[in-house]
Design goal:
The protein is an alpha+beta fold and 110 residues long. It has a single domain, classed as Hypothetical protein (Metal Transport, Frataxin, Chain A), CATH 3.30.920.30. Helix content is 35%, strand content 20%. It has 4 helices and 5 strands. Helix 2 packs across helix 3. The longest helix has 10 residues. The radius of gyration is 17 Å and the shape is elongated.
Length: 110
Amino acid sequence: MPRSKSDVDAALLQKGFLSGEGDHAFFVYHTVDGKKTRARTKTSHGKGFDIGDNLISQMAKQCHLTNAQFKDLVDCPMDRPALEIALVARGIIDPPPAPPVDTTKDGKKQ
């Protein structure tokens, strides 16, 4: 099922992708700490058209997601934390650092 270009663009921007300029609208995913990743895609600058399943599939591959995951990203069941989990699972981004371990007895300072 096609998705409107405006919906795709809005969802990418909402989920942590930043746009760049050029002959197409480029979107590169940035992690929470601002690092660029290999997850990127692009759309045309045109307005008011739908992106068909063939292009959705290509965009999913560029973002290192399955077609279903990309559609969930655009349709909003997938939020930014879920996107990051998917990208960590595929080795595209590093997992967040583990919280510090409490080495005090019963969590109380001695």
